[in-house]
Amino acid sequence: MVTSSVPRLVIAAPSSGSGKTTVATGLMAAFAARGLAVSPHKVGPDYIDPGYHALASGRVGRNLDAYLCGPELVAPLFLHGARGCDIAVVEGVMGMFDGAAGEGELASTAHVAKLLRAPVVLVVDASSQSRSVAALVHGFASWDPEVRVGGVILNKVASDRHEELLREALESAGVPVFGVLRRVAQVDTPSRHLGLVPVAERRGAAVDAVAAMAEQVRAGCDLDGLVSLARGAGALSCAAWDAAEVLATSPPTPLPVPSPGAAAPSTPLPGGSAPWTPAPQTPEALDSAQAAHPGARGTARPAPTQPHPASDGPVRVAVAGGPAFTFSYAEHSELLAAAGAEVIVFDPLRDEQLPVGASGLVIGGGFPEVYAAELSANEPLRKAVSALAETGAPVAAECAGLLYLCRELDGQPMCGVLDASARMEDTLTLGYRDAVAVSDSSLAVAGTRMRGHEFHRTVVEPAAGDAAAWGVRVPRRRLEGFVQRGVHASYLHTHWASVPSVARRFVERCRTS
User: pTM for the full model?
Assistant: First the structure.
């Protein structure tokens, strides 16, 4: 059995707004300034914080999400990101014990810390307390004996006297203090309707913000003590995740995508039972669709394992990037490349054509609503995207990508691939989703289960096409998204590491479309 022990820390807090991002990003930058190779990670589905982590560490920021990927993949994905690193810093999410709603500890910072066998540093906003801090920290340190709270960093401390009182209280609680950050003017990290403004939109200002976090942490924290704590993390008895290996060992998807209007073929179920047929696309059919395929994430109709057909060389897959489309998990491009794709990033705000020779298109999340006028003004690219989709080429779009493919967004013309309109609204749609594919598509066969995450303040009308992408059961049963020709467009953000066959199926469709 493979064992690994990368020094690592999990940065947690009693609640959101305590200073996790400042401390975690500052630590990454401060360690990197010392010449350490730092592996940056973020608990949960957040796309924005990893951008600041990457800027601080010089390495790709990666997510560790026990809901989207399953607890079994947290340690392998961590080791994949931490290859060749001297230390890893994992920024938590929300309060330390807050996870997926109604799922207990699942996907919480505490859960991930246990899966990583990592010590936790608790960041406490001490601005309105003194001796009470000991009771607070004691509660967090003792709530779950499997979580090792190795120490605290006190944030927003007002004065030397305030610091003295806090240290006194924590000494009696037996919890080491690894840092004290004074109450200063907030580091310039502006927010808007979905949280922090991404690094790609701030550039120079983001560099200055990360430098300020690094200096604040360097001046106020015991970096040597924190490195020593990180070295006390337990060994992990698993191999690092590898895109090529998981594709080689996962079975191929069993069926091609049917041509428009064609009847879905039937396939026997295990044990020679009756053929499987896609359930009617109504919310009431979701129960029966999932009952027919009750397995874990990514299960679909069983298929025998067989050798993957020889590659005819790489196919070109265009991936949207730039300030308008910053939401992407690094593992998606890695899986596409391992499946035989040449991944080419383009910027829909600047590039008037898709990359030459692109036979597939991936458009992830981001903020097209902020850049609606600029995206609309790039008419040549909008027409190119529409033309590619019209050929039946695979197009995978999530959230922002869904909006971009609509007919219009807040009255601004978009690509017109989907006969739907999108607009901003005040209501925040947020949360994990358990979904089942209800239509065969360029990503998955009907019946495939995946977990996703929604995070937006927009609405698309209609919410689903004649062939929907997903059936979602929680918080309410509904059909969601669009499947037409090679297009799969949905609000759901998914993590392809949980179902690597998605990437292979997409690349295979690029070869045959």
Answer: 0.87
